[in-house]
Design brief:
The protein is α+β, with helices and mostly antiparallel strands. Helices cover 52% and strands 22% of the residues.
Length: 294
């Protein structure tokens, strides 16, 4: 995720052209291989085992390697070996910048310092961002005070990475009391906490989520495409309900709803802008604050 943020920053600073950035980004994406595919190519997992672990990720908020070791398909040493074969996207991006004679390592170091200063990140936070450990990276990017906001949004981002696009990145997160939207799919969960999680965006971005998750080709935002998006949101809320239940916190999910061209009022509404490919949409999250639609 960090290489995408830093790459966009380099374009904004005119350190590299947008065309060069897109070309390097494409090369990085070409070499990004999922852990399951590496495991199959190394003869450590079968395709059947890989598919099973992928399916389990829909109901378990865990990384592929962690599930595979819990199932007994991989030993810890085998997992360590596989992870060593996976370079971070950030390291590939930096190497390509140098190899293509776009920037020197000294120039990259200067831009990194500028980026760090602009964002106010500490040295330790920058090290985490470069590691691309999403469990640690996402809370740094969100910088939200409410623990439950951070937990559920982090869970949502992890599942967007797993099931929608591995190249997803966050460009904005904020708290507001009023929000206008074009299209919104949202689900409430009620109980010890009252939670409402939704996806808001234009037709193109929401259709892309529906198409990828359902593995279908929807042509318009309608009941069918909204159902696909809402099913995805329901899976995320289900994972979070399971996590809360481990702490004796109970919530029950209600049927999802969708709205168009309205405005909402809500105290402490968390909004996170998510980007993937040429699309962008907002995650909307309310915890223990009612939403009023206008």
């Amino acid at each position: 995720m960090f290489y995408l943020l830093f790459g966009n920053y380099l374009v904004e600073r005119s350190a590299i052209s947008e065309a060069d950035y897109l070309a390097i980004k494409h090369k990085v994406q070409e070499t990004n291989v999922k852990l399951g595919l590496i495991a199959v190519s190394e003869g450590l997992l079968t395709i059947t085992q890989t598919n099973e672990v992928n399916r389990l990720q829909a109901c378990m908020d865990k990384r592929f390697g962690d599930i595979a070791t819990e199932k007994g398909y991989l030993t810890k040493d085998e997992l360590t070996h596989l992870l060593s074969l996976q370079e971070t996207s950030y390291s590939k991006f930096i190497q390509l910048l140098v190899n293509c004679n776009l920037l020197t390592l000294d120039e990259i170091a200067i831009y990194l310092k500028d980026y760090q200063s602009l964002k106010g990140y500490t040295d330790s936070q920058m090290a985490i961002l470069k590691s691309e450990d999403n469990d640690a990276v996402i809370p740094i990017l969100l910088q939200l005070e409410n623990k439950m906001h951070t937990e559920l949004i982090s869970l949502t981002i992890r599942n967007l990475i797993r099931f929608i696009d591995p190249e997803i990145y966050i460009t904005k997160s904020y708290i507001t009391n009023e929000y206008a939207f074009e299209n919104l799919a949202i689900q409430a969960a009620m109980g010890d906490h009252n939670i409402q999680l939704g996806f808001s965006g234009n037709q193109e971005s929401l259709l892309q989520i529906a198409n990828i998750f359902a593995d279908e080709e929807f042509s318009a935002i309608d009941a069918d495409s909204y159902d696909a998006i809402c099913e995805f949101i329901n899976c995320i809320n289900g994972l979070y309900a399971t996590k809360l239940s481990e702490d004796d916190i109970e919530i029950d999910m209600l049927p999802p709803y969708f709205y168009s061209n309205q405005k909402m009022k809500c105290e402490n509404l968390a909004v996170v802008t998510v980007n993937f490919a040429e699309y962008a949409f907002d995650l909307i999250l309310s915890i223990d604050s009612p939403i009023e639609y206008m």
